[in-house]
Design a protein that fits this description.
single chain, 614 residues, mainly alpha, Clc chloride channel, 26 helices, 5% strand
Amino acid sequence: MKIKDPNIPATASKSTENSRMLFMSLLASIIGIAAGFTAYGLYTLIAIVSNLVFFHRVSIEIPKLQSHILGYWVVIVPVLGGIIVGLMAKYGSSKIKGHGIPEAMEAVLTNRSRIDPKVAILKPLSAAIAIGTGGPFGAEGPIIQTGGALGSLVGQFIHTTAAERKILLACGAAAGMAATFSTPIAAVILAIELLVFEFKARSFIPLVIATTTATAVHFQFMGRGPMFNMGEVDFGIPNSLPMFIVLGLLCGLAAVVFTNAFYWIEDQFERLSKLRIPIDEMWWPAIGGLGLGVIALALPRVLGVGYDTISDILNERLTLVVLLAIVLLKSLALIVSLGSGTSGGLLAPMFMVGAALGGSFALIMNSLFPGLHLSLSAFALVGMAAMFGAASRATFTFIIFAFEIVRDYNAILPLMLGCVIADAVGLLLMKNSIMTEKLARRGLRVHGDYEADILQQTTVVKVMDKEPQTIPSSLPVSVLADRIVRGDPSVTKHKAVFMQNENEELVGIITQGDVLRSGELHSEYPVTVSEAGNTILILTYPDETLHEASTKMLQNNIGRLPVVERSNPTKLIGYLGRTEVLGARMHRIKEEEVLEQGWIRHAIRLTKIEREKS
């Protein structure tokens, strides 16, 4: 018998894995710094364009666009920006359209984490033009996509696996978010929930390093505080917790309505290309810009990134009328303009809508029930996190995000309660999230649940057949074939049997296919099973996981493995086939779906039996 895969110590492959992880961590630090500078560059570019367009001045501070000096010309400015973005999308790259994160997810799912280099240049430039001319978007989505493009380009420039390139893409995306909001923990969780789809040391360590370095760049250029500053907040624990539950329900419903409205608007723009006189999609952003301009006449606060408005909401500076106007008109402006296919981010505008919704709820409840004394700031913070968390199905991310903003441990209970209630509503009423609906329409399925792989948790010894079928290696094939035809259970339990020599040592394996081929090729003279079978074996060991064993099957295109002792590879102790491997999966399915009898029903059944006996 020859062994094709000798028993190499596990430490050798582990050492290689660790060295790759260290290398990836070094690359992650470089990507984090680059993404930090990119975020600052885009932030500065948006500020320059906004000041030039709306105030005719040069400044690197993002202005308050509600104080613009354009008058009625404000209707035209977003249209001009939409025309420029439409031209860039048509003649540059269509990947610049959208809010960034779904595009990064698509690259991971369909293109082995490869992003076109043009995206790294055109996406931030198009976002700066769209936002700088009044687009009601945040910079974070484009920065996330641009950071992801940087990570992907690094992974394409050097030798990497597709899995490593995915990690580098996620490092760039997470670093972009961390550099924008100074929320490194939330950025790591966002990348895990929406991009890498795993929680392993190989991805977690580089992600932390990338977000840490990106946040350090943020500290250097944009200050040490978070994007939104808040004063001391009274969360009213525990008396206000029931009201946070109600707010969670409201935010969940708002997330559902917003998501459906957004994609309905996208569908209406798609119909423009099917009209009798079709309108080229290059002009759609201009049409969306026109709608934005009209809305801006009624409420100038809908223009631009709106970070100042979010701060005003969180610090209780706006009236109920203004908050309700923001909920309605900012939502409308966002879905009309972004639904047209322009370039911009969803996070900041949805934060504004969620915060305004939470603040409005607190003010209305206080007016109806004067004894409540609900904090507008507290409910605005929870509303901000809950609405976007429910819409994106990244609830854990935005619980941590909001906590990193306020940095007050008293916020944890309201955030957790409000966000998970909103998430539950979203799960019940929406099949896909605002991030995955577009991908689902393209035939892509994004698995949003994370669980440990049962194949990684189960060892071979737990599922193997401990009574493998064996035959002498000198047995004629004709005898074996006759036993198979007669249905002899000693050789038909599996599709293969193992061969042993006179010392009961494993020497090979013969499958039923080998028996058939042997009869066709060697019909003129007797053939033994050792001549017809295979004596070059792939082995597995009882302490290996099913993941390791099934990997050997797939890599060598075989359906079964002999299980042997590590110390003595000729001593056969079991049989592992596809059925045994799938049996572990079936065990997990039964654990999840089969209801087991509880104590109450068991007691009732026993009582019933006793009564029948008496």
